[in-house]
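Batch manifest, entry 17 of 40.
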Amino acid sequence: MRGVLVVTAVVVTVGVPAFALWRLVRSRRAFTSPAERATFDVLHTANLAAPPLRAGLNEASARRAIRHLHALLPAAAVALTDDESVLAWDGDGAPAHALWLMDLVGPALESGRSRVAHDAEVACDDPTCPIRAAVVVPIVVEQRVVGSLCVLDGHIGAGLIQTTSALSAWVSTQLELAELEAARVRLAHSQLQLLRAQISPHFIYNALTAIASFVRTDPDRARELLVSFADFTRYSFRSHGDFTTLSEELRSVDTYLLLERARFGDRLQVTVRVAPEVLGVAVPFLVLQPLVENAIRHGLEGRAGPGRISVIARDDDTECRITVEDDGVGMDPDTLRTRLEGGIPETSTGGVGLTNVDERLRQVFGPEFGLEIETAVGAGTKVVMRVPKYQAGVRVS
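Output type: structure tokens
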């Protein structure tokens, strides 16, 4: 303890904060050579530039990324352009040089090849200006030239050209990842729209028919069911957010079951057990109701007598495990496997949304989180859905 106090006193005397000294010593010990330190600096800087570029190539993302890109290139200035204008500039010469830079960028974008310019092509009349040469490297995303990375300096050598080309390729990769993410979002949206279209013919007609049957005999019940139907459709066709909580999904399922009980009466027997710990878990929107609807169709339709359905959600360490099970007619395992692999449309086999839900779970959480289904003809069906309790990028909006 005395040694620590003495060191602290010395540090205070010379005017350097103890915490800063600790960080300095620690950083020196972390790297055993200048090469290791240089490698870390490059990777760290690239890591800072990546998130803005993942948003796509636009003025806002370019401005956020440009100073980090400049830090990777030993040059007087660095610029990012699209196919029409300079989006961002960092270093000497802006904004005056940005006006003539696009004259150099245009031919490079048209040809898809890098271009180096010297002296006369660099429109700078100031004799003290450090910019006397430039290299323009196209940025290519999915075989489309979308912009360029431009480096400006007093002299452009072979080493700087190679470094700029490598960095442009890295920028292209980040933008391609952005395109993939945008495509994933579009696909998820289209899958949700498809699922809604499947729900519409399978459920809405039957629900309205059940409500109509009570209009004369029990108007109050008909009014209650109509309000429930409005609540269910409002939730199912909402336009915001890819995720919701399990609690909200269960509330929608409860409304759905209320409408189905109006149609099936005592034939529909439902058990729901949910661990309170998992009510707040984020799940893809409209992921549970299709499983319950599928269970009802296979658990009741096409068979005499009552059908039993259970919905169980429990805490399973780092996951939430949701099981939907029925004692109905079941399915042929080979047919089910073919359907999930995309070989048979769901509408032709009477299934409701199983493939859709399976694909969405895999896209969001990974291939290991697809539906687990146990079934056989005459033996009912058990569907297990596993959801991580915490997943990066998954949040309820």
